[in-house]
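Exercise 7.
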Amino acid sequence: MIIDLIADLQTQKRRAAVSRGETGSAPAMQIASDNLKSIRQDSKAGGLQGGGVIMQRRHLLVSSAMALFALALFALAAFGAAPAAATPCTNLSGLQLQHTTITSAADNDSGVFVTPSTPPTTLTGLPAFCRVTATLTPMSDSAIRIEVWLPKTTWNLRFLGTGGGGFQGIISYSALALGIQQGFAATNSDLGTGSSGCNPLYCGSAGNMGNPLAIAFGDPAAPTTGLFGHPERIKDFGYRAIHLMTVRGKEIANAFYRQSAQTAYFAGCSTGGQNALMEAQRFPEDYNGILAGAAAFNRTHLHIAGLSAWQNTHATPGRFIQPGQMTLINNAVLAQCAGQDGGVRTDPFLTDPRDCKFDPKVLQCTGSNVPPACLSAEQVTTMRNYYAGTIDPHNGQVINPGSERGNETDNIFALGLAFQERLPEPAFDGLFYWVFGPSFGHPASATNYTNFDFHRDVDTVDDQLAGTLNAVSTDLSDFRKRGNKLIMYVHDDRITGLVNFEQ
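Solution. The predicted structure, written as tokens, is:
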């Protein structure tokens, strides 16, 4: 599939060059190098609302997939002929589109964009572009914010849709900037959750409870319920926002350039990967090429796995993994398994983690040794559960596969176990507030984040949300019949370690 996409793109590139009378073009790898340089220059730009520096770094983790997009697509996509004369940008403010309010249309010829976030960040090296903002209201309770950035003189006749991360709730400005730097007319959406006060990590919680890490990552002080009581906003988040962003974004681009894009691409990672698969499965006419990274396709079970991981480390005080111990475990994993799976013995990673049968019991304390230099018996249990995954306690069914050996890290920005266990409630558990309401944040209630039943409550969540949120259809026949291409990649163990590829 990758070879087919590359071949198609290279053919388009040759044809474009011939049509312009060119005898050659810049080497693809040089373009890729320039793309990655742009990403490094923009590494401080997250476009987040709230959460400070740490929230910005979280957003960069979600947005890092755009580097892979630059290598997989931008380096090969040909620039088309010079675009037709464009409609003045400000005229777009009066554009009439179904269920759409254009809230602004403004020229930006400065090469710089300051994000409307707290704190603001500055994106540089931008071409002159028209920035259009709009709110989409397909239903009376919907409020989907989108932005469309349109390069004025460097358009490559292509349209780029970009995805979100976590619960989104914000606009991914770095994705828009990267898009127009490569000549694309680019669009992004807050997925319709911003109107409910959501951000990438939180869309319902019991409040930050004064926890410094929760505060730093944007958990509000007061309890919130996210999309509880808003079924149409759940549909917007699940699939509708990205589709309508695409439709309206193309219409806005058509009005500006007075012609349609020749080709449309979509790129997203994590939630953006789920957005990508929803597009391929539900709306195969939207994009010619789709890049789906670390797709959160089985979303309900992914979030259930987060609950399980938090409960695992909070079952007793002794189950907590202390600072530095994940590095201790990772070193032991590599010492046992590196090189035996086709990789190099000195590699600081595993080539095929499935080949590693490391048992954390080998690090269990003996004699006078005590944690953190070794693992207690309870900590061994924590790590065994970590690798085993989320299991139905009644029938042994795997709800979600566990994390791969070799992924252990003390880096909280990886949003793994070291991050999860230090929070007052599970990360990303806002989804369960959408089902159970505010009582999910009360430890004394029948169903809450401390006593979620991994047999009974799983079905309750799936019955209400799976049909809307999970991109699990295996029927891509309509997408394929159109000659469209789909590339999937994995790089995020919070998701890849929870994907059962054998299924």
